Amino acid sequence: MKKTIALLALALSGCTSIHFDNGADLTQDTTPIEQWHHGWALDLYEGSEPVNIQQECHGQEWTTVKTELTFLNGFSSTVANLLAPIWYPKTVTISCQKLDASSP
What we know:
Blueprint: H1 2-12, E1 17-21, E2 33-40, E3 45-46, H2 53-56, E4 62-68, H3 71-80, E5 87-96
C-alpha cells in the first residue's frame, strides 16, 4: 500500500520552474551555479538562507536565476515525506556574467 501511495504521489507531483532574466544579452557564455534550497513543514518555513546573488556572482552582474522543483527534488521529497510532510527541496540555478579578463 505504501509503495502504491508513494508511486501515485510521485506521478502526480509536477515539476515547477520560475525563471528570471536580467537584461537583454543572455547569449553570454556563463557557468551556472546550482544549489538546493530547503523548505520545511509543507514548505511554509525556509530551511536555507536566501541565496545571496552578489556573493555567488562575486560582485558581477547576474544574467539568470531559476528556481525549480526537479524530478530529483520531487523524488527525494516524496521518499522523505512518507511518514509526515516535512521536507520540500528546490534547486536554485544562478548564471553570472563572466569576469572580464582585462579587469584587475
